[in-house]
Amino acid sequence: MRRAGRNYVGLWPKTPGRLLGIGAVRLYQLTLSPLVGGHCRHVPTCSEYAYEAVAVHGLLKGAVLAGRRVARCGPFGKAGHDPVPPRTP
């Protein structure tokens, strides 16, 4: 579940690792992201993707997914809708 223009709003376990990861992403969004500007070629943006990936998959797997996503943002990467994969049991 997503709302337009901001972070994941679905239910997720508030574990210490997830809260640490979410806090790091929010700190980036509030401080550095305005300086970088709105140049993301994906929907959701990379920071919103990282927020959702950590919330859904946990700190470690979410960080790996976010790192892969940032690596795809190069000049030869694709653009468009790139959602976080669903959690598999």
Briefly summarize what is shown:
The chain is mainly alpha-helical. The mean pLDDT is 86. It has four helices and two strands; from the N terminus they run ααβααβ.
Distance between the termini: 18 Å
In round numbers, the mean pLDDT is: 86
Order of helices and strands: HHEHHE
Tell me the β content.
Answer: under 5%
Biggest sheet strand order reads: 1-2
How many helices? The count is 4
Shape: globular
- Supply the helix-strand structural class: mainly alpha
**Unreliable runs, pLDDT <50, ≥5 residues?**
none
Our Rg estimate from Cα atoms comes to 13 Å
Largest sheet report: 2 strands, parallel
Instruction: Give the beta-strand count.
Output: 2
User: Approximately how much helix is present in the residues?
Assistant: 40-55%
Write up what this structure looks like:
The chain is mainly alpha-helical. Helix content is 51%, strand content 4%. The protein contains 4 helices and 2 strands, in the order ααβααβ. Strands 1-2 form a two-stranded parallel ribbon. α3 packs antiparallel against α4 (59-71). The relative contact order is 0.18.
